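Annotators were shown the component list below and the corresponding predicted structure, then asked to write short factual statements about the assembly.
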Amino acid sequence: MFRHVVMFQWADGVDDAHIAAASAALSTMPDKVDTIRSYVHGRDAELSPANADYVVVADFDDADGFAVYRDHPDHVALVQQFIAGHTSLRLAVQHHVDGG
Amino acid sequence: MFRHVVMFQWADGVDDAHIAAASAALSTMPDKVDTIRSYVHGRDAELSPANADYVVVADFDDADGFAVYRDHPDHVALVQQFIAGHTSLRLAVQHHVDGG
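Structure shown to annotators:
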């Protein structure tokens, strides 16, 4: 298995409606990108003030499956509409997961 | 379900032996903290130079289960030995996951 994890900090001025629309758009990704095996995302529970605001954990069979997602037109459009220009911080990790 | 995700950037001078020891110590957490339901961690695959270096995704039944982990003496000791003072960046998100 190959996992992609990404966190965001929303920029100042990003409101709840934007976050809800971003979340709804993210939820459509598994139906649009057939290399996605698992896709879990959510808004920080605010237990810690140092936390980022949002996280996505996406699993694929392999790094090629991740690349299909990363470059998929629907994903690129989502990033352009909801993420790029709306976040003050983005941090990601991809890694291989043993046993799958 | 309640998910905790944390990313690190290792500080300058942290070597492969330290990262391997940190990874081995992380792998012992599920045997030590009985509220952990799933625990997946790994080193960045270096597909993107902007990425962080390491990520941990830990799942619990609820936020209380996460708090048990966060405050568990064996977890606190691991953080002291391998993370605190060895990282230039730490970023986390906790969130509720629908359907579990």
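Statements collected:
1. The CA atoms of residues 41 and 56 of chain B lie 4 Å apart.
2. Chain B has one domain: 2-96.
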